[in-house]
Amino acid sequence: MTVTxxxxxxxxxxxxxxxxxxxxxxxxxxxxxxxPLPHAAVAVPAVRRRVRAALxxxxxxxxxxxxxxLLASELLTNAVVHALPPATLRLSRLLGxxxxxxxxxxxxxMGPAPAAGRPASESAPDEHGRGIDIVMALSDRCGVxxxxxxxxxxxxxxxx
Length: 160
Known about the structure:
six-stranded mixed sheet
């Protein structure tokens, strides 16, 4: 397995345990990128560029890259808007049974922000609330996991 950490992570930050079961049974992690997320909406495009660079390095077709970028963007934006910092994005490429490849996007944060701590939206209300629908439509599997290290939201895409 190759693990690439992009950006700066404080030494006392510990990656949250990840869900054991991937979409493909007997999946073996082949490569991973870990990217810390500054808690500001302006950070999402910069992290998205890092995700694009990682996906490009994996030589995926443009449609898959676009879908995974949109998944990452939705999960990242959710963490910035609705959760407590810090947040970390973990992008993994898993080799599964039958030689299929699973791409996993996982964003871990410290859980929901109290209602009083949530920033007021400055854009129209019809521009919000569709993120989970987008994630469900583009992923083969997705979910949310509460754990000692916070909350992880993840999505998986199978690539032949």
